[in-house]
Design a protein that fits this description.
The complex is a heterodimer of chains A (about 250) and B (about 230). Chain A is of the alpha+beta class and about 250 residues long. Chain A has 2 domains: about 5-110, Ubiquitin-like (UB roll), CATH 3.10.20.30; about 120-245, Fumarate Reductase Iron-sulfur Protein, Chain B, domain 2 (Orthogonal Bundle). Chain A has helices at about 35-45, 120-125, 145-155, 165-170, 175-185, 190, 195-210, 220-225, 230-245; strands at about 5-10, 20-25, 70, 75, 95-100, 110, 115. Classes of the chains: A alpha+beta (about 250), B mainly alpha (about 230). Bound molecules: protoporphyrin IX containing FE, iron/sulfur cluster and FE2/S2 (inorganic) cluster. FE2/S2 (inorganic) cluster binds near residues 59, 62, 65, 83 and 160 of chain A.
C-alpha cells in the first residue's frame, strides 16, 4: 500500500518545527508502524537526507520508549497497543497519516519525534522505589499477600512509563503514571512501609515538573498501552490524603 | 495546611469539598423551593422560618460564599496550571480521546453558572427591581394574612417573564452539565471511587444531575404554563 505521511520535523529543542510530507510507497500490511518508518528512513539515508528521528527500543511493547502521536492519538488509538505493536494493516491504501511527538511542557522535544522524558525519571527518584535492600529472591510464598492486592499491584506495575497518558491529556497531567507507581508499591508489604512519604514526595516532584492536574476526562486510560485505569488515580488521591492527615 | 493550597492534589480536594457543599446546598434548596407546588401558605411559612433566624441564615450564607470563593479560586488556578502544562496542541485540534463534552467544558459551564448565581441573588435575594423586568418591587409583596414577605407571589411574578425563566432554565442546564461530570470528579478527587463503586457513582452523577434539572426547571415551567399562579 502507498501512504502519505505528514511528519513533525524539528532540528533541535529550540528550533521552530513544522510538518513535512513524505511518501511511503510499497508498505506491507504486516509491517509494524516503526518498521514502516524504518523503510522511509532508509530511503532518506540513501538520498543523503536526515532520517526522521523517533524513539524505540524493545519493539515488543514492554520498554515504553516508542512515543508517537498518530492522527492525533498517542500510540494510534488501538486498545492496549503501544506504537511498536501497531501494524500497518489498520491503515488503508492512500491514507494520509499525521505523526507528531508527545506534546507537554514537561516533555521538551529533543529532535523531530523524540521527546525528553527525564521528568518521569525524576518523579521515580523522588519515591518510586523501596529503600531497603531485599537481598536474594525469597521463597515465593514466604510473605503472604492477599490475591486481590497482588493482582492490583501487578496491574499497576504493568505501566511502562511511556508517557502516552500525559500526551493524551488535555492538561498534560501525569497522574495516571504517578498513580500506577504509587499503587504498585504501596499495595505490597515491602512497599507499604514508606507509602506516606512516597506519595507526598512523588506528587511534589510531579507538580514541580510542570505537569497539569487531573480533570477526570479519561483520555489517559483510553490510550494507555497497558490499560492502567482511572481507579488508580482515586487510590493515589486516597493515599495522599492519608499522608496529609498523618502529617507526612 | 500549606500543602493543601499548593499541591495539585490539595487543590483538587479543595475543589471537591467546596463542590460537595455547594452540591448539597443545591439539593436542599431545590427541595425547599418545590414547596411552591403545595401553594402559597406552606412556601411562605418555610420562607419566614428561614428569615426568622438571621444568625443561622447569615452563617449559612457566609459558609456558602466561602465555598464559592474556594471553588472558583481552585478551579481557575488549576485551569491556568493545566493550560501552562500543555502549551502546544496537536494538528487540527482533535478533541481529546474519550473525554466527554461535560468534562472538557467544566470551566466554561462553571463560569456561566457563576454569572447565573449573581443574577439569581440580585433577582430574589437582594431583590433589585432593575433585574426582574416586571417593573415591580418584590420587597413590597406582603402576604395579606401574615404580613410577612410573600415569596410565593415573588416567584410567580418573577418567573412570569419569559426571558427571565429562559435564563433560569439555561443556568440549570449548565449547572447540571457541570454536575453530571463534577459529582463523579468529586468522588474521584477524594479517593472514594474504586473498581466496584466506580460505575455506580458515574450513574448516580448522571441521575442526580437529571433530577436537579427537572426539579428546578419544573418551577419556572409551571409558572410559564400557568399551572402555578
Ligand atoms: C461558580 C462558578 C463555578 C466554577 C467556575 C466552577 C468550576 C469548576 C471546575 C473547573 C471544576 C473542575 C472540573 C474537573 O475536575 O473536571 C469543577 C468541579 C466541580 N464543581 Fe464547579 N464550578 C462552579 C460552580 C459550581 C457549583 C455552583 C457547584 C455545585 C452546585 C459546583 C460543583 C462542582 C463539583 C461537585 C465539582 C467536582 C469536584 C472535583 O472534580 O473534584 N461547581 N468546578
Ligand atoms: S500509565 Fe500507561 S500511558 Fe501512562 S506511562 Fe504508564 S503505561 Fe504509559
Ligand atoms: S519500543 Fe518498547 S514499548 Fe514500544
Amino acid at each position: 500500500m502507498n501512504l502519505t505521511l505528514k511528519v513533525w520535523r524539528q532540528k533541535s529543542p529550540n528550533a521552530p518545527g513544522r510538518f513535512i510530507t513524505f511518501q511511503a510507497d510499497g508498505v506491507i500490511p504486516d509491517m509494524s508502524f516503526l518498521e514502516m518508518l524504518d523503510v522511509v528512513n532508509e530511503g532518506l539515508i540513501e538520498k543523503g537526507e536526515d532520517p526522521i528521528a523517533f524513539d524505540s527500543d524493545c519493539r515488543e511493547g514492554i520498554c515504553g520508549m516508542c512515543s508517537l502521536v498518530i492522527n492525533g492519538v498517542p500510540h494510534g488509538g488501538h486498545k492496549g497497543t503501544a506504537t511498536c505493536q501497531l501494524h500497518m494493516r489498520h491503515f488503508k491504501d492512500g491514507d494520509t497519516i499525521t505523526i507528531e511527538p508527545w506534546r507537554a511542557r514537561a516533555f521538551p522535544i529533543i529532535k523531530d519525534l523524540v521527546v525528553n522524558r527525564w521528568a518521569f525519571d525524576r518523579i521515580i527518584q523522588a519515591g518510586g522505589f523501596i529503600s531497603v535492600s531485599t537481598g536474594g529472591a525469597p521463597d515465593a510464598n514466604a510473605i503472604p499477600i492477599p490475591k486481590a492486592d497482588q493482582d492490583q499491584s501487578m496491574d499497576a506495575a504493568a505501566c511502562i512509563g511511556c508517557g502516552a497518558c500525559v500526551a493524551a491529556c488535555k492538561n498534560a497531567s501525569a497522574m495516571l503514571f504517578v498513580a500506577a507507581k504509587v499503587s504498585h508499591l504501596s499495595l505490597l508489604p515491602q512497599g507499604k512501609v514508606e507509602r506516606h512519604r512516597r506519595v507526598t514526595n512523588m506528587v511534589k516532584a510531579m507538580d514541580a515538573e510542570g505537569f497539569g492536574a487531573c480533570t477526570v476526562t479519561g483520555s489517559c486510560e483510553a490510550v494507555c498501552p497497558k490499560e492502567i485505569n482511572l481507579t488508580f488515580i482515586a487510590r493515589m488521591n486516597r493515599e495522599y490524603l492519608a499522608a496529609w492527615f498523618k502529617g507526612k | 495546611m500549606l500543602r493543601l493550597f499548593q499541591s495539585s492534589l490539595g487543590k483538587k480536594y479543595i475543589m471537591a469539598v467546596s463542590g460537595f457543599v455547594l452540591f448539597g446546598f443545591v439539593i436542599v434548596h431545590m427541595l425547599g423551593n418545590l414547596q411552591i407546588f403545595l401553594g402559597p401558605e406552606p412556601l411562605n411559612r418555610y420562607a419566614h422560618f428561614l428569615q426568622s433566624m438571621p444568625e443561622l441564615l447569615w452563617l449559612a450564607r457566609i459558609v456558602l460564599l466561602t465555598m464559592v470563593a474556594l471553588h472558583v479560586w481552585s478551579a481557575i488556578k488549576l485551569s491556568l496550571e493545566n493550560k501552562a502544562a500543555r502549551p502546544a496542541g496537536y494538528e487540527g485540534n482533535p478533541t481529546p480521546v474519550a473525554a466527554s463534552y461535560a468534562s472538557r467544558t467544566m470551566l466554561m459551564s462553571g463560569l456561566i453558572v457563576a454569572v447565573f448565581i449573581i443574577y439569581h441573588l440580585l433577582h430574589f435575594t437582594v431583590q433589585t427591581p432593575a433585574v426582574n423586568l416586571t417593573g415591580q418591587d418584590f420587597k413590597t409583596f406582603l402576604d395579606p394574612q401574615t404580613k410577612h414577605h410573600d415569596v410565593f407571589r415573588m416567584m410567580v411574578v418573577g418567573y412570569s417573564k419569559f426571558w427571565v425563566s429562559g435564563f433560569y432554565i439555561l443556568g440549570m442546564a449548565l449547572l447540571c452539565l457541570h454536575l453530571s461530570h463534577g459529582v463523579t470528579g468529586m468522588f474521584q478527587s477524594l479517593g472514594l471511587k474504586n473498581e466496584h463503586t466506580g460505575k455506580w457513582i458515574d450513574r448516580f452523577a448522571l441521575a442526580v444531575a437529571a433530577v436537579i434539572f427537572l426539579g428546578n426547571c419544573s418551577i419556572p415551567m409551571a409558572v410559564l404554563l400557568g399551572y402555578v399562579r
